[in-house]
Amino acid sequence: MKTVDVITNKIVIVGAGQVGATTAFALMISGRASEIVLIDLNRAKAEGEVMDLNHGIAFTKPVSIKLGDYDDCKNADVIILAAGANQKPGETRIDLVHKNTAIFKDIVSKIIAVERNAILLVVTNPVDILTYVTLKVSKLSPCQVIGSGTVLDTARFRSLLSQHCQVDPRNIHAYILGEHGDTEVPIWSRVMIGANFLDDFCVQCKKECDRVKTKEHIFYKVKNAAYEIIERKGATYYAVALGVVRIVEAILRNESSILTVSSYLDNYCGLKDVCLSVPTIIGSEGVLAQVPVPMTEEEKQAFIDSGNAMKKIIEQLKL
User: Fold this and answer.
1) pLDDT class for 211, splitting at 50, 70, 90?
2) Rounded to two decimals, what is the model's pTM?
């Protein structure tokens, strides 16, 4: 009798808080994972999430969901790091840096003691700093350590452009680069709607809007979206979970998709030894390549400033 090879896609999520649990739910209904393991310092909370998720398996594609510990990181394809202190109202992502750096040093050391071949996907904020911390503590290849970066910011950017221009966001190419945070950079010069650059599309458009004010408004909404959501409901987790699933899909299916994840830069626009978001080709080995982006001098300088802001924070950390 012919034997059939079983393809396993094992995902471990460290941190069963709102982002981690929602990511587990999104992964479950996506059907991309064959095994999902939740690890959390609060085992009762994680166990409750596992129980709740398992009660829904009858409505999804087959998947094993279980409570685990760091030994369960063995043979994982992707390990998602979603643990750490949450961003509070009035608090910036950078305000979290020192307490979450300490947490990550402990977590990453425990993971690496068990598994060194998985892709580590950092979601916790400040994500660019913690992606760098994860890389340095783990001593893994830079291709194996990815941050969720500006995947969500880029999605927000395309969504708001879609609403304003009344065009399906799937037909809009636009990127937010740099830090996932206050110094992020919209690359307006490369926004394309269909086959047209934005300025060319605007010439054809029937709307008579103030382009400068419209751009300022859209970027303001992108950059401050998380603050507005946190002020209203305490945390963001639905959209970021879907963004994480999109990255995981690109890895598991070896898609070579271009996503604005955060990864280690070694002479990208002259920036070195820092993790930032740039268009990046993602596949089963993690980061396959970083794609150069033509920028205006103003955009390039803003991107460099974003990187230098991250480097100043990194210098304060004892890595």
Assistant:
1) confident
2) 0.93
Q: Which among 55, 98, 173, 180 is annotated as catalytic?
A: 180
pLDDT (tens digit per residue) in 67-79: 999 999 999 999 9
Whether 139 and 190 map to the same domain: the answer is no
The span from the CA of 26 to the CA of 35, in Å, is 13
DSSP string, 278-306: --EEEETTEEEEE------HHHHHHHHHH
- The answer on 233 and 162 residing in a single domain is yes
The predicted structure's pLDDT at residue 122: 98
Coil/strand/helix, residue 119: strand
Shortest CA distance to 176 belongs to which of 241, 223, 131? Answer: 223
Query: Which neighbouring-strand residues pair with 238?
Result: none
Residue 98 belongs to a domain: yes
Among 266, 258, 285, 19, smallest CA distance to 151 is for 258
Cis peptide before 126 (omega within 30 of 0): yes
Mean pLDDT of the chain: 93
pLDDT of residue 85: 78
Whether 180 is catalytic is yes
**Which residues, in sequence order, are bridge partners of residue 176?**
186
pLDDT score recorded for residue 93: 62
Count of domains forming the chain: 2
Domain co-membership, 143 together with 228: no
- Looking up tokens 């408004």 gives 217
